[in-house]
Amino acid sequence: MALVDIQVPDIGDFDEVAVIELLVKPGDVVKAEQSLITVESDKASMEIPSSQAGIVKELKVKLGDKVKQGSVIVVIEGQGAQAATPAIAPASAPAPAAAPASAPAAAAPVAAPLAVGPVGIIDIRVPDIGDFKDVAVIELLAKPGDAIKVEQSLITVESDKASMEIPSSTAGVLKELKVKIGDKINIGDVIALMEGAAAAAAPAAAPSPAPAAQPAVAALSSASAPVASAPAVPAHQPGAATAGLPHASPSVRKFARELGVPLAEVKGNGPKGRITNEDVQNFTRAVMAGAVQTQAQAAKAPAGGGDGAGLGLIPWPKVDFAKFGPIERKEMSRIKKISGANLLRNAVMIPAVTNHDDADITDLEAFRVSTNKDNEKSGIKVTMLAFLIKACVAALKKFPEFNSSLDGDALVYKNYWHIGFAADTPNGLMVPVIKDADKKGILQISQEMSELAKKARDGKLSPAEMSGATFTISSLGGIGGRYFTPIINAPEVAILGVCKSTMEPVWNGKEFVPRLMLPLSLTWDHRVIDGAAAARFNAYLGQILGDFRRVLL
Ligand code: CAO
Fold first, then answer.
1. DSSP letters along 113-153, please?
2. pLDDT tens across 395-436, in order?
3. Closest residue by CA, ligand 1 atom 25
4. How far is the CA of 350 from the centre of ligand 1 (A)?
5. Is 247 one of the annotated active-site residues of the chain?
6. pTM for the predicted model, two decimal places
7. How many whole angstroms from 475 Cα to the centroid of ligand 1?
């Protein structure tokens, strides 16, 4: 029996795609056309079928490997046939769509999606989508009037082996969609008319239309920024030939991954049961509201724990804001999306209460200023936050339940004191962690804080530098404000919010004296902590900040 290498066939404008699923194993008997692996880019997922029947002798790829046209993926002991012609390859390779007359030859091997129609109107065409013919339009991702960016997906198409999004080759305003759901399209078909923002610099005049000419390939380069903790979500199987795999387009699966949504548990309400963006959003809302539990949550839920079902929340209001005035829609950053989902869960699931108090930091501030003067040469600047971290460790030691976490019906007390601090970054809120703050002095804490804050702003924090906190401080002291109600960073059970200190008249029993007062806002989980303990915690914190020598006691 001949051994045959099964190779990746022509997969269109996709240069390198990641293997996300192995559908067979050595020893399996496979039929011709049976899918062997699933690959995925940020715009498409597709299954690579076997070109012939036989027995799988060896898998040449593993999960995460990058493959491209011609890569050998499986060795098959064939049943007679010798050729390793990819089964999904048509008899002849599809001819690329007509390139714009003026496009340089170098741009031709892949798609030629760009053509200029009458006065500034640009035809957006289907680029090279590999060996796929007559693929069905299953989703329209934009509508006339929408402002479109280069690479923004316009439609999703689906064959029985793949679903992929067709991006726009140019920025502009969408004038007309030339396809509707259910239409069958092929390489070179016009799918939309775009009034191009860059119409004046259209390819006729531009000798280097590279970004427009290879939309799918260019999009791949931005594909590999997975959420570190995101669970792998299996690719969908159009037509549901393989039982149990969720049926969703690549962008929906990416969105689900970013939110950590287990796609297999989401009910699809799109055509043929396909999961839409809205389904993922509704699932997330239902989970956040406690109306639905994921299987992972259910497995972890304490015996007898309520699932919050029956909250009966009304749907999120849908408003066409454009009816009331001009609007601009901007995608939120990845960090904002992830932290938003966490904040929502924490806000909804924790019965949180906030106590406000003031600490007299007049003497501490004088000490801080003189410390900075003494240390001018060292380059280390001490801010009030470093003292607060140290003071909080002392308070956490005195009130250990503030340094605990809920685990089902038990409390886990931690004998380490790792303090997180909220850092404002251009991409959103990050919470780096000062590990073992109890063992560190103010100068070391200050130095680590400024290093971690810089890393946060530069987007260079590692997951390890953001994990393990037992308590968090959110300081707006450098900005302003009086009090606020911070949201607990689960699974912690309390968080301290700090605002800007101000000089205030304080009654000392005989007279009003000017004192520098620091506003504190302590939010705590009422399942673990009660109001009296919270008031004591704040009072003790105030005493320490009022006389820092107490830290030593
Ligand atoms: N009262 C008065 N002044 C204060 C103060 C306070 N409580 N806290 C800090 N300041 C002063 C500092 O002394 C510094 O003054 P100078 O410029 O005169 O030296 C100035 O404010 C700026 O401080 P900073 O913000 O650079 O340093 P920090 O150690 O206080 O904070 C960091 C560091 C990373 C926490 C901060 O930059 C930051 O990102 N804060 C925002 C956190 C946030 O967004 N929280 C909200 C979360 S909920 O959405």
1. -EEE-STTEEEEE----SS--SEEEEEE---TT-EE-TT-E
2. 999 999 999 999 999 999 999 999 999 999 998 899 999 999
3. 478
4. 27
5. no
6. 0.53
7. 6
